[in-house]
Amino acid sequence: MEDLSNYRRSYEKGELTEQNLPEDPISLFKKWFHEVEDFDAVAEVNAMTVSTIGKDGFPKARVVLLKQFTYEGFIFYTNYNSEKGKAIEANPNVCLSFFWNELERQVIIKGVAEKVSENISDGYFESRPEGSRLGAIVSPQSEVIPSRDYLENKLHDLENEYKGKEIPRPKNWGGFIVKPVEVEFWQGRPNRLHDRIRYKLQEDFSWLTDRLAP
To answer: What are the binding positions for FMN in this chain (predicted)?
Structure first.
């Protein structure tokens, strides 16, 4: 047995109080995001875990990159025919989570995912490096493939096919926006008495804030 009971630390890098809380969670998320970004010790501050309920009834979590966020929600891109894409189509209720260890912070977002408009997906796809655009065409994401060579050979063929040409966005590839209904901000504190502030969307689209016990 691998005993991890001594893996512990004291969290002492910040606090989260009710004083000066913004009225909406996106404003606080933006503030935290840029504070972590300015800390300059996080490799990918936009890395987040997306959790879905699969068609087999099991939850599944995976790390993807947040590409945009607005007051409407949080946007990431994927293959719509992937396991996560099919799971979202069957059940759009998802959870996003960010863990920024360096500042001892976590954000957990419950929301409803929906596809972004095609022009938004087109715009982001065109901004990607050529290799990433070709990769989106090459990969039948989440499907069983015979080998790594299978992908490499397909990529090589497409590089030749689209040399000097515009690379079109596959119709099965695009963005999801997760519109939040609940956002929890977690700040590590000493003695495991962590700060947890939850924003919950109300029927009039205002946000109710509560403090949760750690």
So the answer is: 62-67, 77-78, 84, 106, 141-142, 186, 196
193 is an annotated ligand-binding site residue: yes
**Which residue in the list 105, 189, 192, 198 is annotated as catalytic?**
192
Rounded CA separation 119/213 (Å) = 43
Is 63 assigned to a binding site? yes
Each residue of 5-32: pLDDT tens digit?
888 888 888 999 999 899 999 999 999 9
Phi and psi angles of residue 199, each rounded to the nearest 5 degrees, phi first: -100, 130
Residue 192 annotated among the catalytic residues of the structure: yes
The three-state secondary structure class of 115 is strand
Q: Is 208 annotated as a binding residue?
A: no
Whether 185 contacts 97, CB under 8 Å: no
Compute and round to an integer the Cα radius of gyration of the chain.
20
* DSSP class per residue in 28-82: HHHHHHHHHHHHT--S-TTEEEEEEE-TTS-EEEEEEE--EE-SS-EEEEEETTS
Is there a contact between 62 and 49 (Cβ–Cβ < 8 Å)? yes
User: What are φ and ψ of residue 4, in 5° steps?
Assistant: -110, 15
pLDDT at 40 over 80: no
Degrees, nearest 5: CA angle 8-11-16: 145
